[in-house]
Amino acid sequence: MSYIIEKFIKNTGQYKYAYVVLIINNEIYANPGIIFAESLKKIGCLSDIVALVDNNISLETIELLRNFFNKIITIDIIKINNKYPMQNIILSKIYVYNLVEYDKIFLIDVDTIFFTNPDNLFLQSNNTNDTNNTKNLYMVDTSNYGFILIHPSVNIYKKCKKIISENKNEIEKEIKPFKYVLNKIYSKSNIKKIDYKISYDSCSLTDCIQYRRYKPFLMSSELTIEQRQRLDHFKIWFSYFTNILNKYPEIRQYKCVSETIQVSKYFLSSLSRFVIELVKSNKKSTNKLTNITNIYGINDYNNLDYYHLDITKEYTTRYIKYDIDTYDIKSFLKYINNKLLKKYNNYTTVKELITKLQSVDINLLYLFLNNYIKMFPNIFATMELYSSLDIKLQSIPDLKNNLIYRQEYKLTNILVKNIVFDLYQNFTYNQRIQEIIKKITNPEYTVIISVYEMFGPIIDFDTNSDLNLFIFYEQGTKIRLSSIFFNSNTINQYNLQSGMLNLFGSNDKMTNLNKNQLITMLYLQTLKKYIYSIYSGDEINNLGLIIDNYNKITLIDNNKHLISRIKSINSNKIFFITIIFACSSQYKNILKKSNIDVIKIYNPDNYWEFDGIKILI
């Protein structure tokens, strides 16, 4: 197991450390918040990214922030009547001392962009002769109280509250009230220096930039638009912002980003090439390479973006390019290339075909459902979960006439845990475990799978407010549902006590994550990210993986590629897989020597599926 897991991950699967920002009082600060979080994720940080918000931040904006932050925590603002308006709410920062689930926290001003990974600073702060670390305050710059490392402590939080209460009149006259409070807590000997270089309002790239005086995300400013357009550090900020808009176009709908989008339009033409080169040439790539080396044990490769680094959170399929092609029934029958289906060609609707197959050939039905529900945007499915004590629901009332398939399964506790854990990929491992433990306690459950057909794409259904009803309509969730329930080998894999997808072990009461599985999950998520990024939906159906006892992975590619395409796939290959191109003549001998039967890729009896990717058995 990689040593980096021991340094950064607790036995619960939770990160030991966190980066925390405040997004309070004004929703406009959500904009630098998403830049802050994205910059940390791009360089592969191995700590939680947390936003503290207050009741002035709308539920819509919090929904946006959840896409970028690991946690959103609502706090009450501590207000004072300071003559400097920006300092009236600054004392709300003391709330970070209450976050005792973390060993250490970096409290950082939200308008910061990172270029090198600061994770190592958490470890630097251990190098001290002091025995009581909670009395130490770690600073990069002793004048910068917008970038400090602390040890959470409820006692220190209470001391801060007491200082504020007893010295309110004096604090309200202070230029920097937060600094005043902390100086009452920490003596000079308890303030420790750590090595990290910050640029303030400039383009001299070191480790990060803090935008102190002029804020790029605001329309109003002391500077004219023309003056701002000439500032290189503004160009850097907007290069990040526009990249995020391109990567996640759905965030344009949120009100809190509308003003910043209007400002960004003035920078589109001035985002000169040197800005992108400046960011690329910085240390972030080397820093990310170091993390990947530590986790995967490799030293040199060209494909940094394929490697999954968020140890406590799987790579969500939402942000993977996966081209799902739409088929009608006839093209589907042609796709699976099975002569037996010719007698069913007269059935013109999915419901008719499902009804017929259900009565004559259950295996053929599962083959159809397995492929069909992950190809059609107007098909969605639900999974209802019941213990013996629950009262069963009868489908979704409003969609009763849209029901085209329904099936019950009896599942064991461990199998249900593994399935639900896999369905919550957007949660951290620790969050998933806590949710599952709350609900799944009985030895046996009934799972009901229902499939619905709509007239148009599924976009208006919310999902998974509890652990009773899961609604699958995004591409990723449809892949996971069909892979599990319509392939008997897959459900058996989830049921294995020692299987690669089992994260709980045999103890039903076990709350800790099996940390030895984290590396396996990292590899699988990296593999998934690579395959979804390189191959189209059609091409993925022609792939099969062989995983041997030593976790060596061979990818059998049965697509008909041009030589140039084969070279492209190989040049982007992740290090831990070998690719055999079955349709290329130069690989025929390798197939024969390895005794690999390509036909297995198309026979459900010979594979199980991991998120829509076939693993041969």
Summed up, what is this model?
This protein has 617 residues and is of the alpha/beta class.
Number of helices: 23
Strand order of the largest sheet: 3-2-1-4-7-6-8
CATH class annotation of the largest domain: Alpha Beta
As a percent range, the share of helical residues equals 25-40%
Q: In CATH terms, what is the fold-level topology of the largest domain?
A: Spore Coat Polysaccharide Biosynthesis Protein SpsA, Chain A
Structure description:
By secondary structure, this protein is α/β, with parallel strands linked by helices. It folds into three domains: 283 residues, Spore Coat Polysaccharide Biosynthesis Protein SpsA, Chain A; 196 residues, no CATH class; 97 residues, no CATH class. The protein is built from 23 helices and 19 strands. Strand 15 and strand 16 form a beta hairpin. Helix 2 crosses helix 9 and helix 14 runs antiparallel to helix 15. The longest helix has 19 residues. The relative contact order is 0.09. The model has no long low-confidence stretch (mean pLDDT 81).
